[in-house]
Amino acid sequence: MAIHFYEKGQLSSGFHGWQVTATLRGKRYQKYFSLIPPVSAIPNEFWHRYQETRARYYDARWSARSAALKYIDALKTNHPNTRPCRGVGFRGITMGITTGERIDQERCYFSVNEPGNPVRFFITKDCTLSQAWEQAVDHWGEVFDIRPKDIEMKRKHPVGPSAFKALRKQLNEHEGYNISVEALHDVYAEQRAQIERQKASEQTQGEVTEDDLLGWYASLKQEISEYQNR
Length: 230
Known about the structure:
The chain is α+β, with helices and mostly antiparallel strands. Helices cover 46% and strands 15% of the residues.
């Protein structure tokens, strides 16, 4: 958005007054507010104040519209500079996997990308995928001044484990990394627990022994490992 004032004689076209311009989602808008009254009976001073008021009104209106559109776009699209498989569907948060010489240095995380002060929320055995997501979304909402209802909406729709699986594949196959499948272990913890509970309920109808759980856990761990390696 921009507002310009042109003195009489400044432009070869003869126009003098205010020009207001704006670009909204790639489309350019502009309005001109001439200081030449439509009829000679209107006092010049009155017409000057009137046209200036109109020009500033349109400048403020388009500025507000631009801010609203940017906010809406930020909630619905990844940033244009987001690298492949890092986006979560809106701006301000991305996914990542740390790398290192040892397997225990490989960890999945969400990054809240506040300019100059990015903060990572790691998924660990003590902080599940859902918990890390909620922490990241709450911090995102605070630093980017997001409305409470929009924060709550994002909290209810966390990124799934498969997104980190896709990111690992992207890093290994297209970016020269060699991240082990173990990097995804904590990401899939909630899914493994859910499968275990469901299987226990189906096979025991609510009655399960410790030995049964240990046996199922061993077999499920193998199934999950094979699934992640596909």
